[in-house]
Amino acid sequence: MIKTRVLVQASSRSWAGGVDICMGMVEGEIAVVRTIRRVLSHFTDLDVVLVAPEFDRGGELDEIVKLIDDERLSLYYGHDASPLNRMIDACSDLADSDYVIRVDGIHFCFDPQASLAMLDIAISEQLDCIKLPDDFPVHFTSEIFRIGALKAINNELTQPEDAKFLVHPKCYFSMNAQRYRVKFLTELPSYADEYLTECRHLATQIYAIPRQEVNEHRIVSGDRLGFHYELALQHLKSDMKIIDIACADGYGVNIMASHLKEVHGADLDELSVEFAKKNNSAANTDYFVEDITKLSFADESYDAVTSFETLEHVPEHECLSEIKRVLKPGGVLVLSTPQNSIGHIPVNSCHLIEYSLDELLALVNQYFIVVKVIGIKAGIIYDETDPYGTNTVLICVKPNSKD
Fold first, then answer.
1. Counting beta carbons within 10 angstroms of the beta carbon of residue 62, is it exposed (0 to 12), middle (13 to 18) or buried (19 or more)?
2. What InterPro entries does this protein's entry cite (predicted)?
3. Are residues 192 and 229 in the same domain?
4. Residue 47 and residue 4: Cα distance in Å, rounded?
5. What is the 8-class DSSP label of residue 238?
6. Is 157 part of a structural domain of the chain?
7. Which value, to the nearest 10 degrees, does the dihedral of the CA atoms of residues 399, 293, 365, 212 take?
């Protein structure tokens, strides 16, 4: 008889090194606690394991298991940089033919009905992996994996460049569908606007944080923030004068300063700009307090603009028109924003909207020529042949004409 176990993956630290949002509060309850309670209430006949990195041993997650106090819930620690190995070890007593339902600790709105529908398909068709589409709103997602398939890909992922797939094995499966039995759920759930609004309200407190912190605990293989800047540098020239808008503490400016002639940072938050000035003192950098919808810079001031995870926070047309104004003709814009096929009411309460790929291209093409679309699947993983993912990076050029 095939067995199934639910794994809730959580960590006290994000891949960038700061506090992970799964440790934030949702109506007086830690978010990951809410997720676990949802799992326990919907999967009443399944064992549940809270799976966490070794560095969390002896910390707050221990107390979470004691707080929930359910005999079906256990805790596994191990493998700081490899969620894949954590999953395998947490299921060491299961057979290769058994399955796991994997839920992210921050996904307290995950869809249990979709999880069960995928599990039924996986078992009946003996799949290695089944998941929701890459651009489905992440807060509602889960994945189903066959234990033997997890072990198989772990044996293949032996090179340093494979580390990103140890973080997100679902992407390795979907990008190697010719060798593994992989499906996307096709009968997709839909959600009423009232339910989306409810989820958004619940998430208000956990997203009411200053900015994502990047520190010495950063694990590169999962850090999307740093990866955005790596992607940008592939499309910028060393003699460029550029500005990073919504630069926060100057993390990205500091990365780019060693590669480019002159790099400025701009942010609406005065404290962030003050911090950046004090802690990033490269001679070719400068920082400004600016509103992206009404920049103080003269027309055609910059050769390039970078702005990551910003568009979804601000009035879109004011933002893009201002970026276009300060760019020189032929100048480069590199931007990123979440990709979401149901993004008109995003769960992230800091976002005004999240764009499907088609919506984003229709918007940005009004101002720029889009020369490349990168759909980041998860973390730092993307497929050159497939623009769909959880996050979109656009490489754009300002037209040479004045219109």
1. middle
2. Methyltransf_11, SAM-dependent_MTases_sf
3. no
4. 8
5. T
6. yes
7. 110
266-284 confidence digits (pLDDT tens): 999 999 999 999 988 799 9
How deeply is 316 buried, as exposed, middle or buried, from its count of CB atoms within 10 A (0-12, 13-18, 19+)? buried
Q: Which two tokens stand for residue 243?
A: 């500005």
Q: In which domain, by residue range, is 89 found?
A: 4-202
Average pLDDT, the chain: 94
Our CA angle for 243, 245, 246, nearest 5°, is 145
Q: Are residues 312 and 198 both part of a single domain? A: no
This prediction has a pTM of 0.94
Question: Which residue's entry shows tokens 């359910």?
Answer: 70
Tell whether 208 is covered by a domain: no
CA distance 329 to 324: 9
Contact between 36 and 43 under an 8 Å Cβ cutoff? The reply is: no
**Quick one: tokens of 144?**
């189903």
Residue 214 lies in a domain: no
Q: Is the pLDDT of residue 38 over 80?
A: yes
Q: What are phi and psi of 336, to 5 degrees?
A: -135, 155
Instruction: Specify the residue for token string 């400016």.
Output: 253
Q: Is 50 in contact with 36 (CB distance < 8 Å)?
A: yes
Which residues are 333's β-sheet partners? 305, 396
Please report, as a single letter, which amino acid is at residue 368: F
8 Å CB contact between 334 and 304: yes
**pLDDT classification of 219: cutoffs 50, 70, 90:** low
Do 14 and 47 share a structural domain? yes
Q: Show the tokens assigned to 188.
A: 């997709």
Q: Which CATH number fits the domain that encloses residue 156?
A: 3.90.550.10
For the beta carbon of residue 356, count every other beta carbon within 10 angstroms. Answer: 17
Give me the half-sphere count of Cα atoms (radius 13 Å) on the Cβ side of residue 161: 0
The token pair at 395 is: 């490489």
Query: 129 and 97 in one domain?
Result: yes
Residue 182 phi/psi, 5° resolution? -130, 140
Alpha helices in 157-269 (DSSP H): 163-167, 169-175, 193-202, 224-233, 251-257
Last residue of a domain, one of 202, 232, 263: 202
For CA atoms 51, 170, 206, 27, the dihedral sign is: negative
Number of domains in the chain: 2
Q: What pLDDT score does 19 carry?
A: 79
Tell me what the mean pLDDT of segment 177-182 comes to: 97
Each residue's pLDDT tens digit, 279-307: 887 999 999 999 999 999 999 999 999 99
